[in-house]
Structures are given as C-alpha cells and as structure tokens.
Amino acid sequence: MVNNLRSLRKFWLKIVLIIVILLGIFFRLNNIDKKIYWHDEVYTSLRVAGYKDDQVLTTFFNGEIITAQDLLEFQKLSPKTILSDTIDSLIQNPEHPPLYYLFLRFWQDLFGSSIFINRSLSVLFSLLVFLGIYYLSEQLFNDNLVNLISVTLVSISPIQILYAHEAREYSLWMLTIILSSIYFFKVIKFNKNIDWISYSLSLSATFYTSILSIFIVLINIIHIFLLRQLLDRKTKIKFIIFTIISCILFIPWLLIILMNLHILEEKTNWTNVEQSLVFLANLWCLHFTSLFVDIGLPLYHWASYIFITLIFSLIFYSLFFVIKNTDKNIWLYLLLLIFIPTLGLILPDLIFGGIKSSMTRYFFPAYVGVYLVIAYTLTKKIAQKSNIWSIILGLIFTMSIVSNIISGNSETWWNKAPSYYNAAIATIINQAENPLVITQNLDINKGNIISISHNLKPNTKLQLLNINTPIITHQEFDNIFIFNPSLEFINQVENAYQSSLVLIHPFLYEVDFSKVKNTNKKGFN
C-alpha cells in the first residue's frame, strides 16, 4: 500500500513536470516577435547581412530624407551578399566571436531575415538546452527525477525564455557550456577517445560563442588538478592535451582579437562606467532572482527584496544540502561552476571599477550550477514526503509562469534597456500626421533609430545627421520629432526651426510650432 502511494505520488509529480515543460515550450514559441527589436539585435542583423558601421553612416547619416523602409534594407540579407561579407563584418566586432552569427547567417539563407526567423534560431538552441541539462544532470546525479526537475526549472525559467527571444548568442552559449560540461564528466568517467574529441570540440565551441568562456577552462583546470587528486596521471595529461587543442582551435579568432584590440577596447569601453556599489549589488541579486521570478518590478521596489531574500535562501540552502549529500567531486564542481564566473565578474568591478557585472547575461555559466543544485535539493526533499518542499516547487512554478505571462505580453523589458522606450516612441510617431524624425549619430542613436524603424510605418520620413552635418529645415512636415538629442543639438534644431523643443516622452522631443511668432512655416530659413 505504501509503495503504491509512493508510486502514485511520483507519477503525478512527473505529470506536473511534463505540463510545466510544455508550458516552457509554449512560452518560447509565443509572441517571439512582439518585443521591440532592440539596439543589440539590430547589430546582429547588420553583421549577418554583411554591413559595416561606416556603410550605414555614409549611406544614411548625411541629412537626406529617407524612409524607415529604406533604413531597414540594411537589416536584411541580400541575395548578393556572400559569406565573406558577413565574416568581414564580424571581424570588425571582435568582442563577439562568430559562431552564433554564422549559424544565423545559414539560418537566414534558408528561411529569410524577419524578426521572427532571427529569434527562432535562439528558440531552437534554448529547446536543445532541455536535452543538454538532462544529460548533464544524469552525469552528475544519475537520478531520473533530478534530471526531469532540472529540465523543468530551465524550461520555465524567465531568464531563459527572455534570452530565447533574442537574436543574440546567449541561448547558444548556454547550450555549449552544458555540452562541454557533459563531455568533461564523460572523459573523467569513461576516458574514451570519442569523448575526448567531443570535449575538445564543445569547449572550443564555447570560446567561439563568448569570450567569457574562459571561466569554463578555469573551472575545469581547478577541478582536475586541485580536486581530482586520485585521477590517474594519464587522464590528466589527456586533459591538458585536449584543452590545449581547444585553445589552438580558437587561435584564428584570438589573432583577430589581437589585431583589432583597439576596436575591442572601443566597443567595450561602456563597461568602464562607474556606478555605486548599492546599484551594482542590487543588480547582482536580481541576476539570480530572475532565474525564477521576473515580473518587471522597479530596481529598488520593496517586493524585489522579498524575492531576493527568498531565492537566495533557497540557493544557499540547496548548496549546503548538495555539499552534505553528494560526492565531494560533484558538489565541488557545482560550487566552482557557480562561484568562479560570479566572482570573476564581480571582483574586477569592485577592484578596478566598471559595470561588467551589471549584465545578467554574462552570468549564464553560474546559472547552470544553480539550476542543478536546486533541482537536486527539491527532488530529494520531495522524495522524503516533505509537503513544505512540494509547496516550494509549486511556488517556483507559479511565479515563473506568472513572470513569463507578464513578460511575454510586453513590448519591452529590462534587458532591452538602451531601447526600452522605443516601442512607445514609435507609437507616438505613428499616430502623428505627416511626421519627420530627426536624429544625430550620437552615442547609441544609430542602432536605436534602426530599432525604432522596425515599429514605424514603412513610409515614415527620417532625417539622419552626422555630427558635423548641417541641419536643413523641412517645412512640408506637420510634425517634427527629435530623437535623443544632445543639448548642443537641441540648440541647433531650435535655431534652425526658430522654435523650442518640447519633451513629449523620454528621449523624444517635438518642435513646438505653436510658439513660432510667424505661424507661416514657409518663412523659415
């Protein structure tokens, strides 16, 4: 009777887990193209289409009147664009290794260049993560229920779904991290040549997806030489050889980085901005709470601190539980997986200054470890018939589902910070009669004006100016909008149009013709 009840309980738990996994798949497939195609995704399309920054500037930022549709032509892969054009464009941006962008190039060759198609590749990689986390959990714990709960946590995790809907490399990075970890444990257990080759190739794939994959190498080295003291010398030598092979395979891109180091420094200069410790600490906490709860609260909202307290209590308790109940080599690896990337991002910002650790997406290696330790703890606690832990699992699922419903039906979200208001700005412009949108090549405006153009009516007129391009007035437009101007540019526009600018939305101004003394606009110079 007891065994029957236990089997029935386990059966219904698996049914719930399968339903949640199906919901995770649904959230990944639903509203893929709803959110604003933001600044960074715009550059994804530019790179894949084979365009360079100077081509956009010389073609469009010259003061001539163009349409939003004209600008979006640079977001599409032309039949005339050959693969070397894409590679040349990627070389000009060495901070992003090319693997994801080459995959997307071939994906666009097959299916086209729409927002839906671009983001669908990330969805595919995110779905493959389900299989990856299952087999990694199997390598670590050899427990089918732990494996299934690991998949469930990843499937419904708000942060995973959020980045599955981005035409960026982070879902692929998650997949390659997991694959390299799977083969890392397989070579330790079985020492087969095919596994060593797979380990080397998967580790190299992580390098070609993100420069931050250096954390994975560091984790593996520490684990092999400081923790696996009983591992035979032959296996350690093989580990050195195949890790070196992975690094050798990355040399072509490493040479590109070294030859374009000045470009790398320029492109990543934004990470050197100073921020307060309180601001950064809040973000560090929210990086990890967004694994399970992300309902769009303001940064310093009181409810955020409740979620932070609850989620971090769960994480630290799970760490202690795993340490107490698993083999030393397992829990030490998971600790390294969580803390090496986390400290590797936070400590440099604390010591030297900067905001690299403010980027949630940079912590993906640590998230793998968090999912696994929590999955193990939940499984073992529920197996002990703990109603409290069943409730905790239910709350995790509930908050994750609510988070995904809210996020999935929004046009923008916190991860699109540079373009956060673009959807609302586009709506204002689309409602105006005969509008003209003016902006200058300042800061992030180049990417953001293209971002907004995805939401503008195709025939909306734009006037894009380089820093030194003189303003030519156009009296034939009924509404003139100025997007994200500098103070100097505001003065220039006001002088040119003999009127003042009115802030009507964050980053959007409008020429106030009602205050012009001579209401005949043809009187302008």
Sketch the topology as an H/E string, one letter per element.
Answer: HHHEHHHHHHHHHHHHHHHHHHEHEEHEE
Going by helix content, strand content and strand pairing, the class is: mainly alpha
Strand order of the largest sheet: 1-3-2-4-6-5
Q: Could you tell me the number of beta strands?
A: 6
Mean pLDDT: 93
**Which stretches are low in confidence, meaning pLDDT under 50 for 5 or more residues running?**
none
- Global shape: globular
Distance between the termini: 92 Å
* Helix proportion range: 55-70%
Proportion in β-strands:
5-15%
Largest sheet: 6 strands, mixed
**DSSP summary: helix tally:** 23
Radius of gyration from CA coordinates: 26 Å
Structure overview:
- With 525 residues, this protein is mainly alpha-helical.
- Among the domains are: 31-93 and 421-525, no CATH class; 130-164 and 268-408, no CATH class.
- It contains 23 helices and six strands.
- It has a six-stranded mixed sheet, sandwiched between helices.
- Helix 8 (144-156) packs across helix 19 (364-383), helix 11 packs parallel to helix 13 (233-249) and helix 21 crosses helix 22.
- The longest helix has 28 residues, at 2-29.
- The radius of gyration is 26 Å and the shape is globular.
- The mean pLDDT is 93.
Secondary structure layout:
Elements: H1 2-29, H2 39-48, H3 53-60, E1 65-67, H4 68-72, H5 83-91, H6 99-111, H7 115-141, H8 144-156, H9 158-164, H10 170-190, H11 193-207, H12 214-227, H13 233-249, H14 251-259, H15 261-267, H16 277-289, H17 302-325, H18 328-352, H19 364-383, H20 387-408, H21 422-431, E2 435-440, H22 445-453, E3 461-465, E4 479-483, H23 487-497, E5 500-505, E6 508-512
Parallel strand pairs: 2-3, 2-4
Antiparallel strand pairs: 1-3, 4-6, 5-6
